[in-house]
Structures are given as C-alpha cells and as structure tokens.
Specification:
This protein is mostly helical. Helices cover about 90% and strands about 0% of the residues. The chain has two helices and no strands. The longest helix has 24 residues, at about 1-25. Keywords: Membrane, Transmembrane, Transmembrane helix.
Length: about 45
C-alpha cells in the first residue's frame, strides 16, 4: 500500500514539474489546453 501511494505522489510531482518546464519553453495557452485534456482523460 505504501509503495502505491509513494509512486502516485512521485508521478504527480513529475507531471507538475514537467508542466512548469513546458510553460517556460512553450506557449502557456497550449500547455493549459494539454493539461486540461490530460486531467479529463484521468477523470474518465
């Protein structure tokens, strides 16, 4: 159980950092659209 929780936290941190770095290199509006679709997929 602990391993699963820690893996989810690590994945979340990686995604969070990735989104921040993408914001620096790519247009912010595009990244916002990408993250929206990503979260929509995860919600389903």
């Amino acid at each position: 159980m602990r391993n699963k929780v820690s893996n989810i936290i690590v994945l979340g941190m990686i995604l969070f950092l990735y989104n921040i770095t993408v914001d620096y290199f790519v247009d912010g509006d595009k990244t916002k659209e990408d993250t929206r679709t990503l979260y929509e997929i995860y919600d389903e």
